[in-house]
Amino acid sequence: PAFAIAARQVQDGTVPFVILGVAGADGVARLEAFPPVEGPRIGTNAVCLLASITKPIVTAAVMRLVQEGRFPLTEPLSRWLPELDAAGLAPFTAWHVLTHTTGIGDVDLERLLREGGDRPELIRRTIAAGQDSLPGSQFRYASVTFDLLAEAVERALDRPFDTVLRETVLGPLGMSDTTFDPGPSGGRRA
Q1: Which of 67, 70, 105, 123 has the smallest CB count inside 10 Å?
Q2: H or E segment at 22?
Q3: Which pLDDT value is given to residue 183?
Q4: Would you call 143 a catalytic residue per the annotation?
Q5: pTM beyond 0.70
């Protein structure tokens, strides 16, 4: 039924296109693309931005680190990001990031990218935006706090977060073409 729903959503304009795959331990059971009714054809090998799908991938990586005792779930991130304390932010943990309860909202990522901002600038703006509520007191969906968590993990492990992702999630799952920043090569590695 999922494939029929995907086809219907493309047909009625709910989504521009869908690439849907089902896999199990034995490999891919079915992979199908539902391209736009009008416009460019989209195939199963298209490179797509992951957008909010990055959150469960980051969460899986962080939870693997927690399980292995390599990163604590409940230690304030200011332990690795002293700039959080310097900005006067109330302490929050990886748990708060993963549950969207840091008290920090999103910054305008599209504007940042248009202005040529990079990850350090995103982190600076996120910290400068401050908190609207105390950690743990309110749910507020936010993407940029995951960048703070990734930075904390990098500093705690003294390893690039991309490397941590490959070692903990992407590599074990065989996701060799997955990247959060496709760059000019379109996400494919040579």
Answers
A1: 67
A2: strand 18-24
A3: 58
A4: no
A5: yes
Cα–Cα distance for residue pair 108/105, rounded to 1 Å? 10
Strands 27-34 and 18-24: antiparallel
Condensed to tens digits (0 to 9), the pLDDT of residues 129-187 reads 999 999 999 999 998 999 999 999 999 999 999 999 999 999 998 888 777 765 555 44
Q: What is the end-to-end Cα distance of the chain in Å, rounded? A: 36
Q: Which residue has the higher pLDDT, 66 or 44?
A: 66
Handedness of CA 51, 57, 62, 63 (dihedral sign): positive
CB contact at 8 A, 74 and 95: yes
Q: What are the residues whose beta carbons fall under 8 Å from the beta carbon of 122, sequence distance 6 or more?
A: 107, 109, 112, 144, 147
What's the chain's length in residues?
190
Tell me the sheet residues that pair with 23.
28
CB 17 within 8 A of CB 33: yes
Residue 16 tokens, joined: 């521009």
Phi-psi region of 133 (alpha: psi -120 to 50; beta: other; left: phi over 0): beta
SS3 of 18, please? Answer: strand
Cα 145 to Cα 101: distance, rounded to the nearest angstrom: 10
Given the residues 52, 137, 176, 185, the one annotated as active site: 52
Going by C-alpha positions, the residue among 34, 40, 39 that lies closest to residue 17 is 34
CB distance 18 to 10 below 8 Å: yes
